[in-house]
């Protein structure tokens, strides 16, 4: 029986809410140790989840495990990933891969050199709708993607906890922390075509309003320094284009996550799933038959990471793709004025 030992670095919300429960459910895997700069927090989490070892340092944790799951704020992903790969460990790193392109490039190179798995936490790819859409696109159902429309919109939901409103630590706001998921998903469905041009604009006026109305807690409107809305236009070398919009403080009637692609032979909507085609003179819409009995994307993502490590396979979310998300985000910030 395999005993594959996982170490958690950063024992905050995503570690306790998603990764520790998911990895604990996988047979042959133990969540063996935890490290957090907040040692009290690490001890509490270890007690709650019956984790054997509370490490004093990342280095100490690395000596005792086969792989680490990095759940620190975005700024620290790079340093922890580099240390873990250098120690010869497999790494699952939360999204975004890094806050700067040059860091993501170094991380990708380090994974290659170490010959270890480096999987990034773009878990939207493991949603049933996303997998069904990928399958249909790979089977040629929509032909070549032409126009991609993405809306990742939350109505007045700036995260009022943690460090999400601090640019220095998170690197950005709704685009860096939320829109990145749908940006990755859209690029993956398109098979990551080469990019010719990125234009974009970010906004932060709504969340700076001292009379804020926010549904996800309270943040300091005087210190928030990240964007709450971003738009982008991306043109690809193959002629396709993407129209992208994300916000976590939008003045819209309700939240909306939508991703649709018009191709040369058909079109696909991912959320909610529908495949549209003109067949025998009429337009048809097919809804995939995947509804029941499947595990959630957090567990699917964790299982995939473990099997990639054990079988020495490249993971579904590859460093060379996640680094492009970071590069696009960087360009949107650069183009914005
Ligand atoms: N995939 C998703 O949908 C999703 C959702 C939420 C958060 N995230 C990502 O997960 C990461 C963590 O987010 P969170 O919501 O858990 O934040 P959090 O603030 O709840 O937790 C972060 C934890 O990391 C610890 N920490 C800070 N610096 C550290 C360091 N250098 N070494 C070790 N521990 C350190 C903090 O003490 C804290 O306990 C971020 O990168 C975030 O973008 C992803």
UniProtKB/TrEMBL annotation:
It holds the Pfam family GFO_IDH_MocA_C3. PANTHER family: D-GLUCOSIDE 3-DEHYDROGENASE (PTHR43249:SF1), UDP-N-ACETYL-2-AMINO-2-DEOXY-D-GLUCURONATE OXIDASE (PTHR43249). This is Dehydrogenase. InterPro entries: Gfo/Idh/MocA-like_OxRdtase_N, Gfo/Idh/MocA_Oxidoreductase, GFO_IDH_MocA-like_dom, NAD(P)-bd_dom_sf. Residues 4-122 form the Gfo/Idh/MocA-like oxidoreductase N-terminal domain. It comes from the Bacteria. Residues 132-268 form the GFO/IDH/MocA-like oxidoreductase domain. It comes from Shouchella xiaoxiensis.
